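Work package 3, deliverable 3.1, input record:
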Amino acid sequence: MTLRLFDSKDRALVDFVPLVPGHVGIYVCGPTVQSSPHIGHLRSALAYDQLRRWLSYCGFTVTYVRNVTDIDDKILLNAEGSTEEWWALAYRVELEFTAAYNAIGVLPPTYEPRATASIPEMQAIITRLIEGGHAYATDDGTGDVYFDTASWPDYGELTHQKLDDMAPAADSDSRGKKDVRDFALWKGHKEGEPLTAAWSSPWGAGRPGWHIECSAMSTKYLGTQFDIHGGGLDLRFPHHENELAQSRAAGDAFANYWLHNGLVAVTGQKMSKSLGNSIFASELIASAKPVVLRYYLGAAHYRSTLEYHEGALEEAEAAVARIEGFLDRAERRLADTRFAGTAELVIPDEFREAMDDDLSVPQAVAVIHETVRRGNAALDDEDFAETAALLGQVLAMTEVLGINPLSPEWASGEDGVAERALATLVERLVSDRETARKTRDFTTADRIRDELGQAGISIEDTPSGAHWSLDG
RNA sequence: GGCGCCUUGGCGGAGUGGUUACGCAGCGGUCUGCAAAACCGUUUACACGGGUUCGAGUCCCGUAGGUGCCUCCA
């Protein structure tokens, strides 16, 4: 079975056929580094991380490019009046994004180009557009260059809208435009703007418009035609529509497939600064273990709206604990049998089919839980061959999704000194409790268990002895 | 006004024509000295009204409510 993806442009599930067999080029619109990352940024990055991991698992060589928009109105605005330069602000925020991505195991892209590093490529496209009659420099002395939407009959093809039906943008800077729907390719430098934010160009000093950067960077690194273009649903229009129009008008075939991830809603509404309901990455990272956060953000289908609600992370924590419990228990139980270390990393067919079906992660996760259930049952039956087989499957599946709770990437960064000290003390108490239980002194045994419990340490009695673990 | 999306059991969240999604929470049971964990069972869901069909959360039409984009946005 081949991978099928929902193409936003076709509005249909389509078979994925790469341009070059065995290779996939993906371009994803990354963040404008104007302010701290929030839950939506993480969700988006995670969605394409899942895609990238699945393609890699399937044997593709993936070239994954996710840009950083480091020059834009908002960045200049946010730096205005502060002692921090706009470029310092952009870089500081970029580092925050990188840290947040790393925290939840989003693999670094193959390359992460910054818009400011591709100004010449943007200018080259603009020049081609002007020469082709699809763009014009204004004659009002501003140095602005606009895309001429009326000159491009296919304008609106991505979002299936007719130019005439679109509400004219209430754009205060539209004086030089031929049509209010035309969008900026190049913005002439304005009085008072930092000179560091102006690049020389055939149309005068200035800076790029928002959309042109993605046309330039995607084709620069992936070629004038490439496989997949992704981004948040809110970027479909105008950003992606404009990207597509200017790239096609400039003669590039551009993306073969368009993917859009769903947004995050808080109490039924899209998160936004004006509503004051933003959930920032830093809050999430502080309130849940990284693997739990990754599980939660990735467990819903990438095209669905993800509802953030109180208790969501606790639910995810319980689900992850269930998986971890099996992995932990199975490895411990198999350790002193001939099945130790024999688990083969096998992806079950049902999991593969789910992932191939437009990345149906919810169903893939259901396969994991089902396998965990069967694995636990096998453990209860002391069927170690079956346990080992299912252990391998769960490990393989959770690895592909990046949610293996036992993966070294989730290990705490502590040096282990404190942990060893704790283990020594706890094991002493556990041993005391075992002694008490043998003499049927359950009062003492239960007291030790209660005291450990109050310290956040759980005790589980198993056929092979008591096992302790830290809660959470 | 234009282009979309959503409405599933206590909660989250899959499912696009015909057998249990799955997770969390609850309840009952097995196991256990008691627990915990685990397993088994269970709570008979698909906004509403029509229609198509042998058969519809699942397709069609309509109604209601919610929501996204059209302005910076993952």
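Chain A has three domains: 17-281, 323-410, 417-470.
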